[in-house]
Amino acid sequence: MLKIRLQRVGRKHDPSFRIVLTDRRNATKSGKFLEVLGSYNARFGDPVIKSDRVKYWIGVGAEPSNTVHNLLISEKIIEGKKINVLPKKSPIIKEKTEEEKKEDDKGDTVVEAVSEDKSEEKKEEATLPEVAPAKEEIKDEVAEKKEEQSEEKTAETKEEKKEETPEEKSKEDSKGEKAE
Q1: Residue 95 DSSP label
Q2: CATH code for the structural domain at 2-74
Q3: pLDDT tens column, 135-151
């Protein structure tokens, strides 16, 4: 597929471009192109475009890049709307914790809409009184489970120490008898 795009030429800090017709698979800096269709000096903003050749290649099926498309529209070589070439920013989405997901699933929050004028609307979130005790109960249950687990671990370590103590005593006793 043929593409009409910009190829940078010129020095450092002096951006000027050729408008070239090339295969879309060719790299932009490779220097491989079929035809030079014009030039564009970005510092001075004066594009020189062969409009008849551009129209011919677009008619044949060549597709202009977004920036070249906007240049052609501003030079009134083709008609249409300009394309936004800036990167799209996506909003940062906070990840919800497990507790918040559970609350959303239950639907414990109520949204009330208060409007003074037709043009202004304010939304407020009101939580039900049952939500706060439920959160505290969950926190208490989690704390209790952690305490139980830590108590079990300490009990296990104490049992292991008790088991080792009689064995060590018997070993020491047998060593003492052999020494005498």
Answers
A1: P
A2: 3.30.1320.10
A3: 667 777 778 888 888 78
